[in-house]
Every structure is written in C-alpha cells, then in structure tokens.
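Every protein is a chain of amino acids, and every chain bends into a shape of its own. Below is the pair of lines this work produces for a single protein:
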Amino acid sequence: MSQIVGLPDFNALIPDLCAWNGGKGVPPEVWIGAEGNFPLAVGYSLVFWPRFSVFEDYVLRDGFSVDSVRGFEKSTGHNRRAVEGVLNHLHIADLHDTEVNEQQLLYLGRILRQIHQVKLCADFPDRRFEVVFNDNPDQHPADYQITFYQL
C-alpha cells in the first residue's frame, strides 16, 4: 500500500495557486479561504469524515438502501465482502462534474483510503476492515475508486 510521504506538489494538484499573489502563488490554505465557502466545507465533511451504519451484520456508508442490499445479496450468493465492497465504493472522479487529472485522483484516493482506515477503526474497534484503493497509474478516471469491507 502506498502512503503519502512528505508534502505533494500542491501547485501541480491545484494549478490556480500559482496565479494568486501577482503570480507568486499562495499556500492551499489561503486559496481555500478565498475560493471556498462554508456550505461546501460542510458537504466535503461527509466525504472526508464519512458516516457509517451497521445494518444486520453489514457496515455500510450512510445512504444505502435495503433494496440494494437485498439485490446484491442475491447476485453474490450472500457474500458479505462482495456486498459491502460494491455498496461502499466511491468513484473519486464523481466528486465533481469537472475535469480531473491522474495526479489529483491518486492524491485524493490515497488520502481517502487513510481517512477510511482511521474512521473505521475509531467507529468499530471490534471489527477488522480492508480499505481498497487501486492506485496504479494509467487507469481510466472512473477506475480510481475506494471501497471497504469487513475481513
């Protein structure tokens, strides 16, 4: 599993940074303060500190439907790992309906994998999980996704 070590090149991840301060650039935190807003920050909290529910013996992202659980139970032969894996997946590119590059997808996917690992351990200390993000380069943007399931 690859980890994020050191600071990434935020100028490459957020090209707008370089345009600020008369072309001298600004740190990401300054840019967020000028370009972001509180409603958006509240919305992002649901992605960057996800909420989970226990349904029967499943651990699922909030917002699942019982009909989906039943449908995937039927199609997977009641394989809990497979049901959780499909219902808990998140396509990184679907966070926004805008262009995204591979560097951004890899950075966000790796961060989200770490966040999910910490959050699942905190919420369910008595259960073990596998958090999966395929961070191989040169994939189609839709293939950069994160999921988790119980071991």
About this structure: Helices lie at 10-13, 28-35, 38-48, 66-76, 80-87, 102-123.
